[in-house]
Amino acid sequence: MPTVALFAIVSVALILGGSQLKTILSSMMDGITNHLSWLYLGIYIINLVFFMYIALSHFGNIKLGSAKDKPQYSTFQWGSMVFATAIDASILMLSMVDPLRYVQHPLFGAKAMSPQNYQNAHMLGQFDWGPMAWMMFASAAVIIAYMMYVKHVRVLKLSDAMPMLQGKQLHKRMLRQVIDFLVVFGIMGGIGSSVGMEIPVLAKIIAQLTGIGDTIWLKLAMFALLFLIFGLTMLKGIKGGIDKLSAAHIWTAIGFLVFVLLVGPTGNILRSEGHSLILLVQRFASMSTGLTTAAGHGIDPVKSETVFYWGWWLTYMPFMGLFIARISKGRTIRQVILGMLGFGALGCMSFYAILGGYSLFLQQSGTVNLIHTLNTQGQAAAIAQVLTTLPLKYVMLVVYAASCFIFLSTTISSSAYIVSTFTSSKLEPNEQPSLFNRLVWMAIFMVFAFGIVFVGGFKTVQAICSVAGFPLIFVSALLIVSTWQLLVKDQSAQVVQVDIMSKPRLSVPTRMIHDSIHN
Q: Which of 129, 150, 343, 470 could join 79 via S-S bond, C-beta 3.0 to 4.6 A?
């Protein structure tokens, strides 16, 4: 209850503060980028190197369960739930407008709006939604799954998965409570920001479709509809609820992408993606370490965008870790890590390849001036303008809006499910959190997101995500250390056991002679 009360207070403060908070949050984002970016970049580098080593070494062969355990879900079902839970409607929106924002800034020394910068802009989003981002989920997913299915430890909260924090000592109990609070704080910041950004865009599209005024009442009606969808999903839980919603999520996304690719400039999009992949390999090290250039400008736009996204992915890390762990029994550590990269990173990169490539083509070819629309009317108007260039534009607007609702429903339903698990004091291993607890957290999500809508501005979303993700940098470091300690300790114990079992067993007379000689 104290956690719920705190977020209720923060939500009310956002609503009352309104646009006055926008300047403060914008300054906070600039301060984080200038002074703390090295922490965000550092933890992602360490995390990527560590878990790629775990996946490709003999540790990757460890099965999350007994030898008889088989995966509960097919590879496609598993991958679709992982992707759909982590990716909400943000990918449908930002993949169209991010490249348009990027191309206006000098990237890697290239001039703004130059042909080279169009290619840089196409590639940058794929880095921020690519392998480094998705590998962050491994820091929580691997250790939780290992503790649950190998060590047979009951894990309801992230702190339960860290052996170094277990015990009745006061400092350990306090540290567990701090970590659990930071986890909930991070999830609220990340998911709340997503909804707060996406609802205004959806409202603009619905207003354009129906002719209804884009007012606060329309946004309230959308929040009510979302709450109804979430409630129906929560009644079912993972089986029959979240899994079916995830499947709809994936097929809707695939259908939309394929349609845009086929009716759009297919050859141009594919060629641009080929060049972007080469650029991504060439620039990967400099972007990962923040050693990019900004052609003399004060704030490096590449680093600024990456810090925002690194904060955002950190907020998703705890709940995605627990969710992935819960559906991964019977798989190996290698399958979990590489599966996240395959379904997650490649899935997100395909959105930026196709939707980002299409919007950049429209701008560069002079078909429509999307950048002018983005700068003067905002993201929603720019996205609507992109959609109206497609054949059957009204059908596509409907499909797009429906897809956004499905994406939002999947992510927030899963988030409320996991947060309610974190905040349940007494829960049996196979028991779901109470429906009341889940509905309370969905309501808190809605109110918090509504507060962000009141403040407004993409810089607000960036600041909230970065601030919410900051303390989780240290939580991620603890998870990495705990994972290494567990795996190495268990491996050492297994080696000792194998050595003992492999020694030749002597008969009693022979052993007596052997002992007498050595004595």
A: 343
Query: Closest Cα to residue 3, out of 271, 184, 239?
Result: 184
DSSP 414-477: HHHHHHHHHT-SS--TTPPPPHHHHHHHHHHHHHHHHHHHHH--HHHHHHHHHHHHTTHHHHHH
Higher pLDDT, 123 or 403: 123
Provide the 10 A C-beta neighbour count for residue 63: 16
CB 422 within 8 A of CB 158: yes
CA 256 to chain centre: 21
| Contact criterion met (CB below 8 Å) for 363 and 371 | yes
CA distances, 252 to each of 224, 249, 404 (Å): 23, 5, 10
Residue 344 burial by Cβ neighbours in a 10 Å radius (0-12, 13-18, 19+): buried
Instruction: Transcribe 110-123 into DSSP letters.
Output: PPTTSHHHHHHHHH
Class of residue 36 by CB neighbours under 10 A (exposed 0-12, middle 13-18, buried 19+): middle
Mean pLDDT confidence for 188-204:
76
- Is the model's pLDDT at 427 over the cut of 90? no
195-223 residues labelled b (16+ CB within 10 A) or e (exposed): bbbbbbbbbbbbbbeeeeeeeeebbeebb
Cα 134 to Cα 344: distance, rounded to the nearest angstrom: 6
pLDDT for 136 equals: 94
Lowest mean per-residue pLDDT among 37-41, 158-162, 290-294: 290-294
pTM: 0.82
Q: What distance in Å separates the CA atoms of residue 358 and residue 354, rounded to the nearest whole number? A: 6
Q: Which residues pair with 332 in a beta bridge?
A: 63
Under 8 Å between Cβ of 408 and 86: no
| Interval 242-280: pLDDT, tens | 556 556 667 777 888 899 999 999 999 999 999 999 999
Structure tokens at 241: 């609820």
For 63, list phi and psi in degrees, rounded to 5: -90, 135
Asked which of 86-95, 372-381, 479-488 is least confident by mean pLDDT, the reply is 86-95
In the structure encoding, which two tokens stand for residue 82, read together?
Answer: 């992982």
Residue 97 near residue 380, CB atoms below 8 Å: no
Q: Which two tokens stand for residue 371?
A: 């950048």
Query: Is the pLDDT reported for residue 57 higher than 70?
Result: yes
Closest CA to 184 of 456, 494, 437, 493: 437
- At 118 the pLDDT is 95
Q: Which backbone phi and psi does 424 adopt, to 5 degrees?
A: -95, 120
Q: Give the pair of three-digit tokens for residue 87.
A: 């990716």
| Average pLDDT of the residues of the chain | 80
Q: For the chain, how far is it from start to end, CA to CA, in angstroms? A: 68
